[in-house]
Amino acid sequence: QVQLVESGGGLAQPGGSLRLSCATSGFTVDFTYYTMKWSRQPPGKARELVATIVGITDDTKYADSVKGRFTISRDNPKKTVYLEMNSLKPEDTAVYYCHTAGIWGQGTQVTVSS
């Protein structure tokens, strides 16, 4: 059974940084092949796809709202995906989810406030 567990959320000041991690387990196929994604859901708003890292190629894609500030990466031996978030803004406040192939983690709360 595939499991995704996010961590690293918390409170950050505007302009600050946080690094989210998504530890995975249970894949029956090499983790390298999986395209991994981070999405977020701000309070009272729809869920938004934030970043994607493509399996095998490690090509990355970002929402315009985070481009240049967020970086998605992966450590294949550790089967873990990361989201480095810099220059945080109050509008980045949301629950952040790691997901792949229709499987979602439980989410981690990120709050950006002074």
The Rg value, from CA coordinates, equals 13 Å
Q: What is the arithmetic mean of pLDDT?
A: 97
- Helicity range of the residues? under 10%
Shape: globular
The total count of helices amounts to 0
- What is the terminal separation in angstroms? 40 Å
Structural class: mainly beta
**Proportion of residues in extended strands:** over 45%
Order of helices and strands: EEEEEEEEEEE
Total number of β-strand segments?
A: 11
Q: TL;DR of this structure?
A:
The protein is an all-beta fold and 114 residues long. It has no helices and 11 strands. It has strands at 3-7, 10-12, 18-25, 36-41, 48-53, 60-62, 70-75, 80-85, 94-100, 103-104, 108-112.
Task: Tell me what you see in this structure.
This protein has strands spanning 3-7, 10-12, 18-25, 36-41, 48-53, 60-62, 70-75, 80-85, 94-100, 103-104, 108-112. With 114 residues, it is mostly beta strands. The protein is built from no helices and 11 strands. 27% of the residues are buried. Strands 2, 4, 5, 6, 9, 10 and 11 form a 7-stranded mixed beta sheet that branches. Strands 1-3-8-7 form a 4-stranded antiparallel beta sheet, with no helix packed on it. The radius of gyration is 13 Å and the shape is globular. The protein is 0% helix and 50% strand.
